[in-house]
Amino acid sequence: MADPLALLRLLQVSDSGFPSGAFAFSSGLEALDRDGFVSGAGDVAALLSGHIVPRWLGFDRVFLTRAHG
């Protein structure tokens, strides 16, 4: 094994649970748009209110409050 740290990094970013790419922050909005499931402002608003906003309000609210409090 030439560089154990390089292997560890490769395994980390290759893990399907590792939040990377567009999906990490937009919950797949780009793919939904590309595949025709999101076609306008109303669809984006529905995605935000139904999926993204509840996630940020429930999980990250504590961290955001402490970071900016």
SSE string, helix = H, strand = E?
HHHH
Global mean pLDDT: 77
Please give the share of residues in helix. over 70%
| Overall morphology | flat
CA(first)-CA(last) distance:
46 Å
Please count the beta strands (DSSP E, at least 2 residues each).
Answer: 0
Task: List key phrases describing it.
4 helices; flat; 69 residues; single chain; mainly alpha
What does this structure look like?
71% of the residues lie in helices and 0% in strands. It has 69 residues and is mainly α. The longest helix is centred in the C-terminal third of the chain and has 28 residues, at 41-68. The protein is flat, with a radius of gyration of 17 Å. It starts with a helix and ends with a helix.
Q: Secondary-structure map with pairings?
A:
Blueprint: H1 4-14, H2 23-26, H3 29-34, H4 41-68
Short description:
The protein is mainly α and 69 residues long. The protein has four helices and no strands.
